[in-house]
């Protein structure tokens, strides 16, 4: 099944009053147009993207529209929205099974929403994203035809939905809908044309954040959404876990600190289970594999080595990837020894290697309530979580 997306950007957004075509305005450092095109260029189920632009922009395509990943065709729009979508459809007619139509002015549609709309179109022939009305809905008009606006009646809101895009169609359904829109017929979306052509259009639950940017207030809201998304994208979380057996004749090293104990941890290096778990968490946060990949126990250079050197290497890799450590939280699970007297020294030792203040390093000690090898005092385990943030 071949899926083609048509991004409708054939208008200029005059209602916004920005002085330039609305789709070229930037939010969060990226144009509205590019954001909307990228939704489909990066979607795993979309095979091709068609962008419909005003004729002058189609003749001189904006430089930032080059989004890698999918074939992209630019066509000139028409006088009406339905004419623009028809031009976009004509560019792919015969090589699409499902066509998704999306307004460029909605740059925050999620990949899940796109997938659900495609699925509904596959099953039903035509589908659109829409939000159920949450407020009481009034039908109103001018009193006497010329007087003030008054309520004519209250409409049952459980039957009222606010249409969004994406809207998706089987190619044959969209072709018939486009034919229904020729001549004097005017529609504000393709779903209305499909309705006019006699096709049932399935409702897919839309998203409140799938905002259509029409006014300056919308633009400010979009900036806030983009800022929130950008902030969350700059953060990454990694988790780590490690377990070692406790044996006689080995020192117990935790976070680079030697803790008095009758047993130590068995391992190729100094077997610092706390440093190992945090190392794995750091590597995971920046998608650089795991500790076994970087420090295999078959490599003699790591025999008896300090695990804090391994942690330092992971922190360096994080820095090379453009991320800094924000904070660490770790839980050491062991029956003995009691770690409370040593936690401050352990936290300070870890903080020095992680390059953060001690206040950003949390280490907690828990027992396993006598259960399994840890509960018998034969092993020690650590769970760790690391938060990193992109620089700049």
Provide the low-confidence segments as ranges: none
Number of domains: 2
Work out the helix count: 12
Report strand order across the widest sheet: 5-4-1-6-10-7-11
Taken in chain order, the helices and strands follow as: EEEHEHEHEHEEEEHHEHEEEEHHHEHEHE
Shape by Cα distribution: elongated
* Main sheet specs: 7 strands, mixed
Q: What CATH first level of the largest domain would be assigned?
A: Alpha Beta
User: Could you tell me how far the N terminus lies from the C terminus, measured between alpha carbons in angstroms?
Assistant: 42 Å
Quick summary of this structure?
This protein is of the alpha/beta class and 392 residues long. The protein folds into two domains: 3-136 and 151-232, Alpha-Beta Complex (Spore Coat Polysaccharide Biosynthesis Protein SpsA, Chain A); 235-390, 2-C-methyl-D-erythritol 2,4-cyclodiphosphate synthase (60s Ribosomal Protein L30, Chain: A).
